[in-house]
Amino acid sequence: MPAEAVDFELLFEALLSPHLVLAPDLSVVAANTGMCRLLQCSRETLLGQSVHAVFAQATQPGPAVLAEWQTALAEVVEQQRNQNLNLRHDLRLSDGTLQPHHWQIQLRPVPTAAGTLRYVLCRVLDVTDRVVALEQSNERFRLLLEVLPQMAWTSRPDGGVTYYNQRWYDLTGGTFAELQEWGWEKFIHPEDLAETSRRWQHALTTGTLFENEHRWRDQQGKYRWFLARAEAIRDAEGTILQWVGTNTDIDERRQALARLQEKDQQLQAIIGNVPAYICTMFGPRHIIGFANAQIQHLLAGRAKVGLPVAEALPEVASNGLIPLLDSVYKSGQPYSAIEIAMPVIGEPTQPVETRYFDFTYQPLHDEAGRPQGILMFAVDATERVQARHRADGLAAEVRQRDEQFRFLAESIPQIVWRARPDGTIEYYNQRWADFTGFNAADAAHIDWSTLIPPDKVEGVKQRYFASISAGQEYEEEGRMRGADGQYRWFLHRAQPMRDAEGHIVKWFGTSTDIDDFKRAQQRLEEQNETLTLTNQDLDSFVYTTSHDLKQPINNMAGIFEELTRTAYFRDPDAVKLIAMFERSLQQIYDTIHNLSELVQVQKLRHALPLETVELEPLAQEVLTSIDEQLRAAHAGVALDFAALPAVEFVRPNLQSVFYNLLSNALKYAAPGRQLRIAVRSVLEDGHPVIEVQDNGLGIDMERYGPQLFTMFRRFHGHVEGSGMGLYLVNRIVQSHGGHIDVQSQVNEGTTFRIHLLRVVKL
Predict the structure, then answer these.
(1) Rounded-to-integer distance, Cα 209 and Cα 321, Å
(2) Model confidence, pTM
(3) Which domains are delineated in the chain?
(4) Cβ distance 298 to 322 under 8 Å?
(5) What is d(CA 59, CA 102) in angstroms, rounded to the nearest whole number?
(6) Across the chain, which distance is largest between two alpha carbons, in Å?
(7) Nearest alpha-carbon partner for 508 in 490, 498, 496
(8) pLDDT 10s digits, 524-577
(9) With contact defined as beta carbons under 8 Å apart, do 627 and 668 qualify?
C-alpha cells in the first residue's frame, strides 16, 4: 500500500510559533495562523506583500532596529546564511495604539537541489513577557547590588560591562559612559592592567571563575588595592547569560600585609645576617620548626622542618645531645656551653668535620607557662679555638726563635741590638755590655746618645729616627765611647722586620767595630797622598829629564853629522858603525819622546774633561797621519762603528790609543801576505768595546802574556821600537776606568779589545 502523502500545508498551519515563507524577492508566499494572530491581520492581507511593508504596517521600529532587520534579510538572501535577531519595537494594535514588544526572529534560507535560493523561512517568537520578567528580575538584582558594601558590576557574555553600582562612581568619579564596556581599563593601574586583562579573557574563554588583585585609581588620583571576583550566570542549558562581579577593597589589608612582609623580611635579614645558627624545636620529640639559612648551609639542608632532630640529624643523637634537650624541655631551665666539639656532616661525599660551638638552649613556653619547645642559638667558635691553638703554638715558636736569636746574638763578635717599631732599643747583647760597661739587662733605660760625641749627637739622632719614620734601612759610621772613656769607630746598621701586611714589628741592628779599619784607611790615605806627590815628582823628573836630554842629544847628533861629513875613515867597518850609531841615536830620540808622551797623557787625563768622541772621524784622522806607511805596506783597513758611533773619552788620549795600535799593526805585519786591519765598535752587556784586529805576526800569549803591557818590553827583535806603545795604551785605558784584553795566535794575527765604561746615546 503506497505511503500517504504528507500534507505540509496542514503541518505549516499547525505550527504554534508564528511563521512566514518568503520568496527570494522577500514577498510573502505563505503565513500560518500564528503569524496572522501576532500581526493582527488576515492571511489574504499578507500574501504577495513585501515583508518590509508587512512589518512596517504592523510595527514601528526605531532606526537602529530597522537597519539591523534590513541587514539580516539582505544577508540571508545574498549569502544564504541563517540569521538570528533580538528586536525591540512597538507593535501597532487594532485600536491604533503602540505597545512595546520583544521578538526573537530566526531567518533560515531554503535552497533548491541546485543550490539556488527557493524560500526564506521566517519564525517569530514574541518574548515580551519573558524579557519584561527578566528586566524586573534584573532591576531587583541591581537593587540588591546597590546595597552591597563592595563595588558590583555585570557584563555581557562577551565581557562588555553593562552595569556598575554606585560604589564605582563614588570611588572613581567617572560616569557610566566612561566605564561601560571596556572603559574600566583606563582606571586600572598600568602595572596591573596586562595581568587583569589576561585573567579576564581567560575567564571569558573558559567560563571559569575570574579572580585577581589589582589597583584602581580614585577621584584624588591615588590607587587602592581591590580583590576582583566574577561568576558566570547561566541558563538551564548552561549558556552564559551574563557575568556578575564584585570588587572588594583590600587596600588596608594589603598595606598591613606589606608591613607584615616588610617586618618579616627585616627579621629574615636580621636572622640571615646574624653569624649564628638558629633553630626552634617543638614538643618532647624536638620536632624542627625553623632552621635559618646558616644552619641549613652548615648541614647541607638536612635540618628538615617537621622532622625530629634525632631523625634528621643522627650525629646529634649519637653525640649525647638528645638527653640534654630532654632536660631543658622538662625542667624549663636554659643551658649554655662554650667551645663544645661537635661532628658536622655536610655533603654526603664530604668527610666528617669536627667544629667547635658556643650555644644556648632556651626553653619556649606557651601563655600558660607550659613547655612548648626549645630555641637553639649557636655561634661557630672553631676559628677562635684554632686561633688560640695557633697562638699557643706561635708563642712557643716565638719563644724558641727568641732563644735562638739571643744565642746567635751572643755568639757573633758584633754588638747586636733590637728596637721597637718606634726605634726605642729594648735589647743589647753582652758585647755591648762588655764595650760600654753598662748592664745589658738595663737596655730599655739607657740613653745610647750619651755614648756619642756631643757635637755629633743631634745629627746622629736625626738620621736614625728619619730612617725609623720612613721604614728604610739605617746605616751610619760613627764613634762611640767605651767603658775606658775612649772613642772607637763603629758601623751601625739596622733592618726592619715586617708582618704579612707590611707593618714594622721590630728593628734588628748591629754595631761593628771598624776602628782598626778606619785607622788603616787613614794610613792608606796618607800613603796615597805621599804616593801621589811622588808620582807628581816622578812625572816632573821624567819631563825635566827628557827635556834636558834633548839638547845634549841634539848637539851630539850635530857633532856626529859634522864628523861623518868631514872626517875620513879608513876602517872598512866604519860605515856599519856609523849606521849603528844613528840607530842608537834614533832609539834615544824615541825613548825621550815616549817618556814625554807618557807624562803628557797623565796630565791630559786630569786637565781635560771627558767629551763625546765620534769614532769614525777620529779613526780617519789617525789613518790619514799614517797614510804613507799604509800605502807602502799595501794594507787594507775596514772601519765599522755602526753599533756604537761615539764614546765618552779624552779625545787626545783616544787618538793616541788608535795611533799606537794601528802603528803596531803596521810594524808587525806578516811578510808574504797582505795586511788586513779591522777597527770596529760593539756593545757587550751595555758597555762599549772597541776592537782593533790584524792578521800580522801575532804574539805568543802563553810566553809573553803577563809581560804584554810592561814598559820597554818588546816581543819581535827584527823591528825597531822602544817597547813603550802598549804600556802607554794600557795606561790610558786604565786611567779612564777601562781595561784591555788581547787574543792572539802566532802567524795568524792579534785582536785588542778595549772595554770602556760609558755609552753615549745619540
Answers:
(1) 53
(2) 0.34
(3) 12-130 (3.30.450.20), 148-255 (3.30.450.20), 274-386 (3.30.450.20), 410-513 (3.30.450.20), 608-755 (3.30.565.10)
(4) no
(5) 11
(6) 198
(7) 496
(8) 887 767 665 655 555 555 555 555 555 566 656 666 666 666 665 556 666 566
(9) no
